[in-house]
Amino acid sequence: MxxxxxxxxxxxxxxGMVFYGPIAxxxxxxxxxxxxxxxLIESISLxxxxxxxxxxxxxxxxxxxxxxxxxxxxxxxxxxxxFWQADGFAGFLLERIMLSVVLAGFSGxxxxxxxxxxxxQDSQKAFGMYHSMSMAGLLAAAGTFSxxxxxxxxxxxxxxxxxxxxxxxxxxxxxxxxxxxxxxxxPEPIRATLQSTLRNRxxxxxxxxxxxxxxxxxxxxxxxxxLQYARCGMNSTAMGVLYIADTxxxxxxxxxxxxTGRLGTRRACCLFCGLAAASCLVLAMTARPLPSAMGVLTLxxxxxxxxxxxxxxxxxxxxxxxxxxxxxxxxxLISCIAIGTNLSFGALSDWNLPAAFFFGGGIxxxxxxxxxxxxxxxVRAAS
Length: 383
Known about the structure:
By secondary structure, the protein is an all-alpha fold. Helices cover about 85% and strands about 0% of the residues.
């Protein structure tokens, strides 16, 4: 199954090459889409993604992970063609609807293929490499944009579509890893999967911790960081340098397994949540460039190291053949919690930016409490 791993790494690299990434908002505005329309499109996409998560997981478990990856990779490519040719609200809405279908289909499937291809060995290292390859693609695309593309937005869209087309072709080489076939599989009913997840209250605490910590990372490092940089008086050049530094830190996911293996699960959770909470407090209490940059970059680093650790734990605790369905249930529950924290971040940042960062620090502490209770219960159950 080594071929699957290398193919997934290459797919992650190519799908990380979003050449319009540094000017994604400006690209849409240049095509006549307002900021209000952009946020409306994002909200529709998030709601649609939640609705599609579990149905896609069921479909993937029935038709196989390879077929799901091929279909979603092909639709991903088509969505980038739509983005490249979009002209106005309707075009970008269509692209985002297609993307919601793709991301819901990928949810749990790519990680399942990778986990099962590892055959129980070094899966966390594989997850770290997978994440790092995506960041490497993003970095390569950002460098290409800055040096060669610059203001040629159309070329940025076209090159992104080409990269995704190559990824779709590579998906054809994947080998199926599900142990059962469509004819012989006995899928666990979705109600049973959902009930078994909800009954495991201890693991629900883990998922709640993941939702809180991940949403803090996502909201601050993608959206609020630019507001903080402007608050510090940074110019666009400085923000560009920090964007590249942020992307470079995304390459360090390969070291997640070594770090968490050395620290152990409990201390790793304390480290990730503690650093994230401290970073939020620094951002709340300063309007100076250097501490602000260090705070945002530390959040990025903790997220980079946390994600492979999270994926490993989620996959390891599953005892069902319908892995994609179960992981989709996990993702749906995480997204439901994330909606609430996301809206809270938005309301607080509109009112007072430091208050949003204090809120971020608070949910990191709550996240740590969830992880510690989960870990204590898991240790007791194992003994």
